Inverse folding.
């Protein structure tokens, strides 16, 4: 059963990332090229349940590769990621979005 879940998780994570890459690219382009938009940049703290170093690194890479966000730091115990987000009007919703899009699929791969 775990093998099937992992088999599904890899393409799901890839598709989610590609979709988020396109959508985020358009959002950042609209902010840069469009009329002045009031953004709400913030540094957010994402506490993760991921334990394997490669899983935490993958989550950090995925957040950094998405336009408009970057992982600034991973704590020494690998439980906390500090993310800079270009527009975080609702910080809790932004963290929930990263969890929903990326962390849940990485958890499946880690299991």
């Amino acid at each position: 059963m775990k093998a099937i879940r992992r088999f599904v998780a890899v393409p799901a994570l890839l598709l989610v990332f590609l979709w988020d890459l396109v959508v985020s690219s358009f959002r950042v382009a609209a902010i840069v090229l469009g009329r002045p938009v009031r953004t709400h940049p913030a540094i957010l703290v994402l506490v993760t349940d991921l334990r394997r170093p490669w899983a935490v690194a993958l989550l950090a890479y995925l957040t950094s590769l998405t336009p408009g966000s970057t992982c600034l730091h991973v704590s020494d115990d690998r439980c906390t990621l500090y993310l800079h987000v270009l527009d975080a009007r609702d910080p809790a919703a932004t963290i929930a979005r990263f969890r929903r899009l990326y962390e849940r699929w990485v958890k499946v791969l880690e299991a």
In short: Residues 2-110 form one domain. DSSP finds three helices and three strands in the chain. The chain has one domain: 2-110. The chain has a mean pLDDT of 93.
